[in-house]
Design a protein that fits this description.
With 358 residues, the chain is of the alpha+beta class. Helices cover 36% and strands 21% of the residues. The chain folds into 2 domains: 3-129, Creatine Amidinohydrolase, Chain A, domain 1, CATH 3.40.350; 135-347, Creatine Amidinohydrolase, CATH 3.90.230.10. Helix 7 packs across helix 8 and helix 9 (239-258) runs antiparallel to helix 10. It is elongated. The model has no long low-confidence stretch (mean pLDDT 96).
Length: 358
């Protein structure tokens, strides 16, 4: 059984559990995940027995070439939704309530008015399935990560005091695009000096400030994202900067060492947070330890203190990214991606983490 058929089977099992006769898929990520065809303007309809890719004239040829053979590729309204519902005996019709606009749902209901269909929100059905990565998904994420690592090695060679934060971000993105990335994983973060105290700061058109330079970025391969943060020092690191950096590094390494199948997500967060708090930086680590990564940059599972009894499962990929941020002064974050394996884990990130001064 190929990967696409396995995904269809897993989805149909969930549909059966939820008593759904069909699902309407409108989000780009789930469209790609289920069909293998990337079309942000298209949609899928999946019933108990059949699966349809709907693509307009601009994408129909690509859809025929790229979509899974398990799907019938169709132009809009050929067949119509009414025909699919009637021929498939669809009564309970699932929709992506977390991704569909109110206007789109209203349009869907209008289209099927009089067909006796009940519309059922599907909640996190896709996010749960997608949280467990197959070997081919892991390979794509690793490939994206290797591109990002190459960008880090490149920036260390070309960075200089006359560069601006926006130039650093552009240089990282240009390298990744040139070496096979489809696009940046997200808006690249490259913030220095006082701006490094902002966890999701926006690169500025100003020359790099002395002190920390935090770079958070990633590449995309086959639709799959990588995510990495490295913080370096512009100029010389004083004792305070060195202490802060080494505390973040200690917290990150301790959390990674503890990660394994069956470990509680919340416990992993606590391990890193306790080290930071006990080093004198209580209240300076204000975000969660990490998150899942895949077709989206933020996926399940979360890795935070609010995860209750949730445990790490084989096939999940999480980030481990503790940070310390002192408002108005500076901040530092270090981030790797970790795959949960049977009885253990694998760090997918292969990039230096020692304190680097430039």
């Amino acid at each position: 059984m190929n990967a696409m058929d396995a995904r269809l089977n897993a989805l149909r099992q969930k549909m059966s559990e939820m008593n759904l006769d069909a699902i309407y898929v409108n989000s780009a990520e789930n469209h790609l995940y289920m069909s293998g065809f990337d079309n942000p303007d298209g949609h899928l309809v999946i019933t108990k027995e059949k699966a349809y890719v709907f693509a307009d004239f601009r994408y129909i040829e690509a859809a025929k070439a790229e979509a899974s053979s398990s799907f019938e590729v169709c132009l809009p309204n050929k067949p119509t939704l009414n025909e699919i519902v009637r021929d498939g005996g669809v009564k309970n019709f699932g929709y992506e309530d977390r991704r569909m606009t109110c206007a789109s749902l209203a349009g869907l209901k209008k289209t099927l008015d009089g067909m006796g269909v009940e519309f059922c929100p599907i909640g996190g059905i896709f996010t749960e399935i997608r949280s467990y990565k197959t070997d081919d998904e892991v390979e794509s994420i690793i490939a994206a990560q290797r591109i990002a690592e190459g960008a880090f090695a490149h920036i260390l060679k070309v960075i200089n005091y006359d560069m601006t934060e926006t130039e650093v971000a552009a240089e990282l993105e240009y390298y990744m695009k040139k070496h096979g990335s489809e696009k940046p994983s997200f808006d690249t973060i490259a913030v220095s000096g006082t701006a490094s105290a902002r966890p999701h700061g926006v690169p500025r058109p100003v020359k790099l400030e002395k002190g920390f330079l935090t770079m958070d970025y990633g590449a995309v391969v086959n639709g799959y994202h990588s995510d990495m943060t490295r913080t370096i020092v512009i100029g010389k690191a004083d004792a305070d900067i060195t202490k802060l950096y080494n505390t973040v590094l200690e917290a990150q390494c301790a959390a990674i060492d503890a990660i394994t199948e069956g470990a509680k997500n919340a416990d992993m967060d606590k391990i890193a947070r306790d080290i930071i708090d006990n080093a004198g930086y209580r209240g300076c680590f204000g975000h969660s330890l990490g998150h899942g990564v895949g077709l989206e940059i933020h996926e399940q599972p979360g890795v935070s203190g609010g995860m209750g009894d949730a445990t790490l499962k084989v096939g999940q990929i999480i980030t481990v990214e503790p940070g310390i941020y002192i408002e108005g002064k500076y901040g530092c974050r270090i981030e790797d991606m970790v795959l949960i394996t049977k009885g253990g884990k694998q760090n997918l990130t292969d990039c230096p983490k020692e304190l680097i001064e430039v």
